[in-house]
Specification:
380 residues; Rossmann fold; seven-stranded parallel sheet; globular; UDP_GlcNAc_Epimerase_2_dom; isomerase; UDP-N-acetylglucosamine 2-epimerase activity
């Protein structure tokens, strides 16, 4: 039995780790241990409940106005103790959160191998996204196995001197999750979404990046206020629980006709809202991966992205947070059917729904139990 300890602490991590944990349950030869940090609290556990996944440990470290230093030191100290007592064969961390970096560092201090799920994404700007770019880069230096979602991510790792024998191109587990959550016959549980007129053009919005807190959220909100003047649209803004974001969104948009400020939704609610939206405005990394699979154009509210594959494929466009540019690009997609169709053709460079199985195959290969691994290849 390979004892696998999965460490994560935020909602996006949970969504992407859930299909891997479920696949591990089906496979013989694995003992799965789930250790949460609680970097997010209710948002995290709501996802796990959605997928019927339990956990073995929870640091429950979230506090009001928590700092990056608090998260880092709390995860490092807490996870070091758990790893020392559990003695897993490998610790899995995901992506670019502070939990991932500190969890990998704790495993390194305990001389325990680290597997990095969603490895190799880069912007090459350490402050964009902040602190995610450095979290992910530092985790790569600590990891023993690198589960890269794309060829491009693999190339980034190779350029940094990571051994090719330790890199496995798997696709992204978020596509695995989408295949189980989004369906054409889904019925919403949220009382507002039950009443939405989906014959209108729905603009779905999310925004939460630290680099957008100072001015970006305000400028994004001003753009939404102008777009809401169109009678053919309804804007559904899933407002992040960060008090600064909520205050700014409400200051500009509260009471605006055709703008609906909702809180965070469950995973299935979010994925199925995405599937029914006309276009999506977001600064989220995960949504840049999810929406193309669903055939939904994405306008990314950032200046750079560590997920260039969808930009290169023409299904995602970087627009930043400039108010006028957001209005112009969104209006173009709403008014120009050809432009819309070019971005809404579906298909994803990020996976085929079998990434979780490939990751487990790679772990078995690493431990000498299996010798076959078939990499993910994007077929346009």
């Amino acid at each position: 039995m390979i004892r696998v300890m999965s460490v994560f602490g935020t909602r996006p991590e949970a969504i992407k780790m859930a299909p891997l944990l479920l696949e591990m349950k089906k496979r013989r030869g694995f003992e799965s241990i789930v250790a949460l940090t609680g970097q997010h609290r209710e948002l995290l556990k709501n996802v796990l409940n959605d997928f019927s996944i339990g956990w073995d440990f929870d640091l429950d470290l979230m506090q009001g106005s928590q700092t990056l230093s608090h998260i880092t030191t709390s995860v490092l100290e807490g996870m070091s103790g758990i790893i020392s007592s559990v003695r897993p064969d490998i610790v899995l961390v995901h992506g670019d959160t502070t939990t991932s970096f500190a969890g990998a560092l704790a495993a390194f201090y305990e001389k325990t191998p680290v597997g990095h799920v969603e490895a190799g994404l880069r912007t090459f700007d350490k402050y964009a996204p902040y602190p995610e770019e450095m979290n992910r880069t530092l985790t790569s230096r600590l990891a023993d196995l690198h589960f890269a979602p794309t060829d491009g991510a693999e190339e980034n790792l190779l350029k940094e001197g990571i051994k090719v024998s330790s890199i496995f191109v798997t696709g992204n587990t978020v596509i695995d999750a989408l295949k189980t959550t989004a369906s054409s016959d889904y019925r919403f549980e949220d009382e507002f979404l039950k009443k939405v007129d989906f014959s209108k053009d729905i603009i779905m919005v999310t925004a939460h990046r630290r680099e957008n807190l100072e001015h970006g959220i305000h400028d994004i909100s001003m753009a939404l206020k102008v777009l809401a003047e169109r009678e053919d649209v309804e804007i559904v803004y899933l407002v992040h629980p960060n008090p600064k974001i909520r205050q700014e969104a409400e200051k500009v948009l509260k009471g605006t006709a055709r703008v609906h400020l909702l809180g965070a939704l469950g995973t299935r609610e979010t994925h199925n809202l995405m599937a029914r939206a006309k276009i999506i405005l977001t600064d989220s990394g995960g949504i840049q991966e999810e929406a193309p699979y669903l055939g939904k154009p994405v306008l990314v509210l950032r200046d750079v992205t560590e997920r260039p594959e969808a930009v290169e494929a023409g299904v995602v466009r970087l627009v930043g947070t400039d108010t006028q540019r957001i209005i112009t690009e969104a209006s173009r997609l709403l008014d120009d059917q050809k432009a819309y169709s070019e971005m809404a053709r579906g298909g994803s460079p990020y996976g085929d729904g079998m990434a979780s199985g490939r990751i487990l195959d790679a772990i078995l290969t690493h431990f000498g139990i299996e010798t076959s691994f078939e990499r993910f290849t994007y077929k346009k």
